[in-house]
Amino acid sequence: MLRSLVHGLTAGAVGTAVLNTVTYLDMSVRDRPSSNVPAQTAEKATDLAGISLADEGDSEEGEGQARKQGVGALMGYLTGYGVGAVYGLLRPGVLAGMPRSVTGVGIGAAATIATVAPYSALGVSDPTSWPAKSWAADIIPHLCYGWATAAAFDALHGTGPHRGL
Question: What's the number of domains the chain is made of?
Fold first, then answer.
């Protein structure tokens, strides 16, 4: 079980690197700015927890913005690692008979939900109002994350069509 968990965490890290690469490639090709939603989500979540991301005594609007962006990015990494860890625990048993292509889509969907749900729950963004272009910018990197996570786990764990590395 510990081996599966470690392989899942590692696979989630690989998937997260792929997700970030695809996202930054999209930003570069389409000249798309980065989203401020993760930083806004971090701010709302820490406010609810009674944690301030601004230095004590800061009074200007925007203070602590770098911390908000950092915490927002860290939340993304934790989601990627966490979804990978859960997959690592489920793949050897519950998901053992599933094809990697299918589990990859499932992992991508789980990561999308784990990312978007806090945005919606905290009132930062309403995914039901997103245009198709915004959904594509979100779903495509998450699908790449899912497939990379599934492939990395199977390679590390010695499962799937290609045993071992």
Answer: 1
Report residue 59's pLDDT band, with 50, 70 and 90 as the boundaries. low
Q: Is 65 part of any domain?
A: no
Tokens of 74: 């860290």
Residue 137 lies in a domain: yes
Cα dihedral sign for 36, 37, 39, 44?
positive
Provide the residue range defining the domain that includes 20: 2-45+73-157
Model confidence over 12-46: pLDDT tens digits?
999 999 999 999 999 999 998 888 889 899 889 88
Q: Is residue 56 part of a domain?
A: no
Residues 6+ apart with CB under 8 A from 112: 138, 139, 142
CB 24 within 8 A of CB 96: no
What backbone torsions phi and psi does residue 125 show, to the nearest 5 degrees?
-150, 150
Residue 62 has pLDDT above 70, yes or no: no
